[in-house]
Design goal:
Blueprint lengths: L1 H50 L5 H22 L4 H12 L4 H10 L5 H15 L12 H19 L4 H31 L5 H20 L4 H16 L6 H18 L10 H14 L5 H18 L4 H15 L3 H44 L5 H15 L1 H23 L11 H9 L22 E3 L17 E2 L5 E2 L15 E3 H18 L4 H14 L6
Antiparallel strand pairs: 1-4, 2-3
Helix pairs in contact: 1-2, 1-3, 1-4, 1-5, 1-6, 3-4, 4-5, 7-8, 7-14, 8-9, 8-14, 9-14, 10-11, 11-14, 12-13, 13-14, 18-19
Length: 551
């Protein structure tokens, strides 16, 4: 019995490597028959990557092959063969006439007679002569060769330049730009959250909308159209918070603040503080009792002028100033003081409202810049498209710009008249006596926007006529009416300017004026909601005006 068991153990020991060889043969047979499926999927994914942008196309294309390989290894590892099946297959392949299978069956039936023992010994001896290499690996040549075609196609598609690579690079550039834009919006949101001049309602509204926009931009995977739609939607929502006439209201209040500064004996600043203007109104209310009758009358006239000028831009503050002027004219100092204090409160309220509007405009400007960055991200030809769009937008607004420019020139003429009649108006004005000789001689050679040519304006070079004083000083308004002559021509009297930008000896160095104007324009561009093509137009305008540019 011991000899029989030894024969059986020896038979098992010889059959194990044969079983491994059989499993390898089965795996190779299955692999050769199924490789075409993985190869076809590999080629299809590579082909789809040529039709639509797929990030990491190589990795996605290799997935079918990797899955197929893992399946084959799993088939090899988790599909064992029993000893009986190994013995039968080896008997068949090597023509052993069922020696090995019979020996295993006899052992399973505990057959220990002489014939059974001899059979098992014979099977054990035959097994010792076997070599695993005698079991050949089975391949299916035809399906294996057919699999080479899709494999070659897939490799070629992945190796050749893919037109979708440019799309993927563009998406990557958009994704990086969106990350930068989200960081800028986050910085703006933190700045607004720390701004105590804003009303709590406006601060909460801006924080909420900017935070929502930032989150959506961070979630974007590089889809330019979706990002532009999100930015446009946020811009449209913020535009609803803009109030018409804000710029005119700010300009009127700032001019009032300059006038109040001059009343206190100081020069009007270019960007006055409205809070100080409100404090000056409070101080005027406290000083009314100490003023003489003449000073009160002068103050009443000044307040009346301020009220008339601000009637359109800030009716509430203008009404307070008008009531104060009427009370002063009637000698009621107590009512005048109350109205001045009320006007001061109106100015403080207007300052908060203007701060809210400035924050909205700043947010809109940031979104506008972000939209332009996203539109230009990753596109080499985008700059040409933007320039073309800017040119189209400029052409569509030429009529409106021309009308605004004409109105601005008319307003400038009025301001020149005011400055010219004020002896203390500074170097920016032109009075009638100084303009007499220049205008009567018919010289209109000075371009108000460029340095004067040699010989113009008394022979001074690099000087420019200054029609506007940044301090805001202005003189008394005067009107000299011309006479209609024969033939429909207008006769211009001496000292009267027939057109803006007339030749005048009131000149200042061009290099001194340019930095102030350029700085003011840059600040306005940063804080105001201005269309991009107009921003570029303004920057180009001041770039051409820069001293030493040579244009």
């Amino acid at each position: 019995m011991s000899e029989s068991l030894n024969s059986y153990d020896l038979l098992q020991r010889r059959l194990r490597p044969l079983g491994i060889r059989l499993r390898l043969s089965d795996m190779f047979s299955l692999a050769s028959r199924s490789l075409w499926i993985a190869a076809t999927l590999f080629a299809l994914i590579a082909l789809v990557g040529w039709l639509t942008p797929i990030p990491n196309l190589w990795a996605w294309s290799l997935i079918p092959l990797v899955v197929w390989t893992l399946a084959m290894l799993g088939y090899l590892a988790f599909r064992p063969l029993s000893m009986q099946r190994i013995a039968r297959r080896v008997d068949t392949l090597l023509e052993l006439r069922e020696r090995l299978a019979t020996a295993l069956e006899l052992h399973d039936y505990n057959a220990h007679d002489q014939l059974s023992d001899m059979q098992q010994q014979d099977a054990s001896a035959a097994a010792q002569r076997l070599n695993p290499r005698q079991v050949s690996l089975q391949w299916r040549r035809t399906p294996l060769l057919l699999s080479l075609a899709p494999l070659a196609i897939g490799v070629a598609l992945l190796a050749l330049p893919n037109p979708q690579d440019a799309v993927l690079a563009d998406r990557q550039a958009v994704r990086e730009t969106l990350t930068e834009v989200a960081e800028e919006i986050n910085a703006l949101r933190e700045e607004i959250a720390a701004d105590e001049t804003l009303t709590p309602e406006e601060r909460a509204l801006l924080e909420e909308q900017l935070a929502e926009l930032e989150e959506r931009l961070r979630q974007n995977e590089g889809n330019r159209e979706e990002a532009l739609a999100e930015l446009s939607a946020s811009e449209a929502r913020l535009q609803q918070e803009l109030e018409p006439g804000t710029d005119a209201r700010r300009a009127g209040l700032e001019q009032m603040a300059r006038d109040l500064e001059r009343l206190s004996g100081r020069d009007g600043s270019q960007q006055p503080d409205l809070n100080q203007a409100a404090q000056q109104l409070d101080q005027l209310a406290e000083r009314l009792a100490e003023m003489s009758e003449e000073e009160r009358q002068q103050l009443a006239d000044q307040l009346a002028q301020e009220a008339a000028r601000m009637a359109a831009s800030d009716p509430q503050t203008a009404q307070g100033l008008s009531d104060a002027a009427q009370a002063l004219s009637g000698g009621d100092t107590q009512t005048a003081a109350e109205q001045l204090q009320q006007a001061a409160e109106n100015v403080r309220g207007a300052q908060r409202q203007l701060a809210d509007q400035e924050a909205v405009q700043q947010s809109l400007s940031e979104i506008q810049n972000a939209r332009q960055q996203v539109a230009q991200a990753g596109q080499q030809t985008q700059s040409g498209q933007v320039a073309q769009e800017g040119q189209q937008g400029q052409e569509s607004q030429q009529g409106q710009q021309g009308q605004q420019g004409q109105e601005g020139q008319q307003g400038q003429q009025g301001q020149e008249g005011q400055q010219g009649s004020n002896p203390g108006g500074g170097g920016g004005g032109t009075n009638a006596s100084s303009a007499d000789g220049a205008q009567s001689s018919g010289q209109v050679d000075v371009d108000p926007n460029r340095p004067a040519n040699s010989g113009a304006g008394g022979g001074s070079e690099d000087l420019v006529y200054q029609p506007y004083q940044p301090s805001g000083q202005e003189g008394e308004q005067e009107f000299v009416q011309g006479q209609q002559g024969q033939g429909g021509q207008t006769e211009v009297r001496e000292g009267e300017s027939a057109a803006p930008g007339a030749n005048s000896p009131s000149l200042v160095p061009y290099e001194q004026l340019y930095p102030d104007y350029a700085r003011s324009a840059s600040e306005a561009l940063d804080r105001s909601y201005i269309p991009p093509h107009l921003k570029n137009y303004v920057r180009d305008y001041f770039s051409r005006l820069e001293p030493g540019n040579g244009n």
